[in-house]
Specification:
By secondary structure, the protein is an alpha/beta fold. It has 16 helices and 13 strands. The chain starts with 8 loop residues before the first strand and ends with a helix.
């Protein structure tokens, strides 16, 4: 795919850590195909390292939940103003939006009014909740690059141009095609991975319960080990403030920015609901999904959710493959109890591994970044 030789500007907006990483892979793929492209937008260290001029730091915008967003309103309004100014002054030929739907759908409408093409990559999960957003997508987005196997049909039935490109996690994580053989039981020293999330708000709500459950498990399995993942965007010192009170009675090893190590070493993982559950599935590690948000956010979300499961692994599988403990159910006692039952039930762990292998196959093949880059360059070429 080729476009005109004159340099063109692309604005890319990723408001969260996962989107920052996916966007960086996409930018590199586009630059490989069209080296003259110039990129600016919202993101973090990954997009910056890929050569994107960062207009607004994504860490200033990312939140979870309905009520939590209020504290970010000044930063969000300032970011919208910055984006509008740059859309007007730079006149990018294409805007690429990655996830972050409440903010990005607003930007899509602004870009559309200015006659700028819009590509949405990692689309809003409108099939899960707030399905009415499809009307806004139909009006403001030119093409959607979807990453879950059922999404292309969902959009096609609603007259929105969409292409299934596979999941970008398969670009970032490349475990062997043939996963290690089933261990047939639980290791003498079980290793539990703790994945509390990548945003301050979700870590604050989930990590204390994970650590409290770890203490209970330590009492029941004296030889158990714990590995705690720290996302690249999160301060290690801040996470240590949660962990340090537990270190004497329940040692926890902190691992910064190398989540692959946790996948490779863990017998079982306790993960906050989100994209990381699909990363865990790719590596075939059994897991327990937990999630806690503010009570108001939970009540509102519960009223709006249109699917039977909250974990992406279970949604893609169409069944309860792994346990989910949400809100009050995600108590230390419950988390520890579910983990203990799994560790004492090798046949259930085997069933989960087999089901996770099926989920992994449904995610498609590696190459999402390249496929999305081709769609982006097609839009640029069509736009002149």
């Amino acid at each position: 795919m080729t476009i005109s030789s004159a340099p063109k500007t692309v604005m890319i907006i990723a408001g969260e850590t996962s989107g920052d990483a996916h966007g960086a892979h996409l930018v590199r793929a586009m630059k490989k195909m069209a080296p003259a492209l110039v990129f600016c937008g919202i993101g973090g260290d990954a997009l910056r390292a890929a050569g994107v001029e960062i207009l607004v730091e994504a860490r200033n915008l990312s939140v979870v939940g309905i009520t939590e967003v209020f504290a970010k309103i000044p930063s969000v309004l300032k970011a919208i103003s910055t984006v509008k100014k740059n859309l007007r002054q730079r006149r990018p030929s294409l805007v690429i939006l990655i996830d972050f739907p409440d903010f990005n759908l607003h930007i899509a409408a602004i870009a559309k009014k200015q006659g700028i093409l819009v590509l949405y990559y990692v689309s809003p999960q409108i099939w899960a909740w707030r399905s009415g957003r499809i009307r806004k997508i139909r009006k403001t987005v030119d093409h959607v690059a979807v990453i879950l196997p059922f999404e292309a049909d969902y959009y096609a039935r609603r007259d929105v141009a969409a292409t299934f490109v596979g999941h970008p996690l398969l670009d970032a994580h490349s475990p062997p095609e043939d996963m290690p053989p089933d261990p047939g039981g639980v290791a003498p020293t079980p290793v539990i991975g703790l994945l509390p999330g990548s945003r301050v708000s979700e870590i604050s709500r989930n990590l204390p319960f994970m650590l409290a459950s770890a203490t209970l498990l330590r009492q029941r399995f004296g030889n158990i080990q714990f590995l705690l993942s720290i996302a690249p965007s999160i301060s290690r010192e801040w996470v240590e403030s949660f962990v340090n009170p537990y270190q004497k009675t329940c040692p926890v090893e902190l691992i910064s920015g190398n989540i692959k190590e946790i996948f490779e070493k863990s017998t079982l993982i306790v993960a906050a609901s989100g994209t990381v559950t699909l990363e865990t599935a790719i590596y075939g590690v059994p897991m327990v999904i937990i999630y806690r948000i503010s009570p108001v956010s939970y009540m509102v979300g519960r009223a709006l959710i249109e699917v039977d499961h909250i974990g992406l692994v279970n949604i893609i599988a169409g069944e309860r493959v792994v346990p989910e403990l949400i809100q009050q159910a995600a108590s230390p006692k419950n988390i520890a109890g579910v983990v203990e039952n799994l560790l004492k039930n090798p046949s259930e762990l085997r069933r989960i591994r087999e089901k996770l292998a099926e989920v992994r196959k449904k995610l498609g093949q590696a190459g999402a970044s390249e496929k999305t880059a081709e769609i982006a360059l097609s839009l640029l070429a069509a736009g002149g």
